[in-house]
Amino acid sequence: MSLTPPGRFISLEGLDGAGKSTHLAWLTGQLAARGIDHLVTREPGGTPLGEKLRELLLHEAMHLETEALLMFAVRREHLAQVIEPALAQGRWVICDRFTDATYAYQVGGRGLDLTKFAALEQWVQGREGGLLQPDLTLLFDVPLEVSRARLAGARELDRFEREQDAFFERVRAAYHARAQASGGRLRVLDASQSVAQVQADLAAVLAELGVA
Ligand code: TMP
């Protein structure tokens, strides 16, 4: 069920180092070339308050549940200030990560209780008629070795990127589980392929949305 007419809400997900930024730039280029009015934003972040909280989330040690609560606090502000107003105006919203990342990283990676996650998701995204979710989520899937290789030497790693391999294996497995249960909302793209091949796959998904 889409609760986000008339604009389209698309999120991008994947392990750190999956190539999300490259594909995000290509995707928004495609929308711009077709004159589709869109907004690019991210989580954690997306508002002045959210960007301040992002700094803490990426660099400050904290309890697992504090981390989950802050991710959803950022999201609450982001929905109210940015995402829902843009969608209501008919703009497309392209969001670099959303709630599927909380499922993958906090529930899968860190072991947050699923009932607590579901309660927060309902609190923050519950709307009359159901949960406000992206219309489409692109999951850029790469094996851990590829993610690691792409991150190597990139820049100073944040608190998440410094996690152990076992953490990222759990994150990836949680993304896959979430995709399976998503009823087609999450589309898994093999991001270990060449950039050109991933773009061809993306073009096919865009065509399904009427962007051809
Ligand atoms: P980014 O590197 O894609 O900007 O994301 C920052 C980090 O935040 C990334 O390692 C994933 C993590 N994250 C979570 O753990 N939970 C969330 O809900 C979100 C949105 C991001």
Polypeptide structure, described:
- With 212 residues, the protein is α/β, with parallel strands linked by helices.
- The chain has a single domain (9-208), classed as Rossmann fold.
- 53% of the residues lie in helices and 15% in strands.
- It has a 5-stranded parallel sheet with strand order 2-3-1-6-7, sandwiched between helices. A two-stranded antiparallel sheet has the order 4-5.
- It is globular and about 45 Å long.
- Bound molecules: thymidine-5'-phosphate.
- The site of thymidine-5'-phosphate has 13 residues, from α4.
Mind sketching the topology for me?
Blueprint: E1 9-14, H1 20-33, E2 38-42, H2 48-59, H3 64-88, E3 92-96, H4 99-109, H5 114-125, E4 126-127, E5 130-131, E6 136-141, H6 144-151, H7 165-180, E7 186-190, H8 195-208
Parallel strand pairs: 1-3, 1-6, 2-3, 6-7
Antiparallel strand pairs: 4-5
Helix pairs in contact: 1-8, 2-3, 3-5, 4-7
The protein binds thymidine-5'-phosphate (TMP).
Tags for this entry?
alpha/beta; two-stranded antiparallel sheet; globular; five-stranded parallel β-sheet; binds thymidine-5'-phosphate; 212 residues; 7 strands; 53% helix; 8 helices; Rossmann fold
Briefly, what CATH class? Alpha Beta
Give the name of the CATH superfamily: P-loop containing nucleotide triphosphate hydrolases
Radius of gyration equals 16 Å
Q: Give the tally of structural domains.
A: 1
Termini Cα gap: 23 Å
Strand content: 5-15%
Helix content: 40-55%
* Total of DSSP H or I helical runs spanning 4+ residues: 8
SSE arrangement, N to C:
EHEHHEHHEEEHHEH
| Inertia-based shape | globular
CATH architecture: 3-Layer(aba) Sandwich
The distinct bound ligands, ions and cofactors come out as: thymidine-5'-phosphate
In the CATH scheme, what's the topology name?
Answer: Rossmann fold
Lateral arrangement of strands in the main beta sheet: 2-3-1-6-7
Structural class by secondary-structure content: alpha/beta
Major sheet attributes: 5 strands, parallel
Report low-confidence residues grouped into runs of 5 or more: none
**Mean pLDDT across residues:** 94
What is the β-strand count?
7
